[in-house]
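Quick board copy: two proteins, each given as sequence then tokens.
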Amino acid sequence: MSRTKLDIMQVRSLCKSGALKLFVKDDALYLKDTDTEEAVMIHQNIKNLMQEGQQ
């Protein structure tokens, strides 16, 4: 799997405008394009992500 850096402010803006949706499925975090319905996993294990944020 390749890694790509996200511009969090751009992602936030696209989510606010409705162009992208953020969702969780099977403990993975996804971004979905609302026009094409294409989804991309951005984090594999949301539980680990939440634990990292608490440290």
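And the next:
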Amino acid sequence: MKRIVFLILIALTSAFEAWATTPASEAATYILEKGILKDSESKLRGCDWKSQLSDCREHLIKVMIGYVKQKKYSLADQHLPKMYDVIFLKGVRFPSPCPDDTITLEGTKAKYYWIGYYQAAYQIKLGLNSPEARKYALRAFLCSGYDSYNYQIKDGKIDSTNLGRAEFIKAIRDIHGDNPAYDISLFTEDVQANVGKNRMAIFKDGTSYAKAIKYVALLKNAARRCNDLGLHPDFAKFYDDLAALWTHNAKSWQ
């Protein structure tokens, strides 16, 4: 319950351009230097996922971060299916277009590390030079910067490589060429920047149910704008799914 409340607070009350989350490079270095990787590997092998879900998923994510830091991408990749299960928590968590999780890292300045499933999956597949990276690319970048007005990324990555605007444009162009339905420059300058700026204005003085509903309207308008611009339907679906999530979570303020 404590974990769920924490995740809701992150999802609903962050109105800033970046969160005070531990950077990916710092988290990975800490996990290796403090022997956390070996400790979590050992504990993960004997984890009871039914009665120790919270502890087990922390060990899982720490192990994956450690493997990626060591460039053992194939080992990290083996854990992706389980990561999917414990982050999505189908039937327990309301479906999110950007499922994520947090782990505690007491020895770091920020005390915790935030990680997104799609960002992690994309970066692991990239590390493997796997063609499967293509299917994660768009969602990984959308989740990295959807509420940033100038694409200063909140993190959520599993390694220190950047998932910023320039990388977004290049990655999608490498996959789809000059297809106008995947014009990332247009998307970030028109749709995404507008959402980010207005989000900051909406939540400038705190949060409330009325403000959350205004944000839902903003997301729905963004979805319509994506369609008006002729972008691929996946862009509009992303904002529609975000609107559904916020509609659900806003009930906590009624």
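Board note added afterward: The first strand starts at residue 100 and ends at 104.
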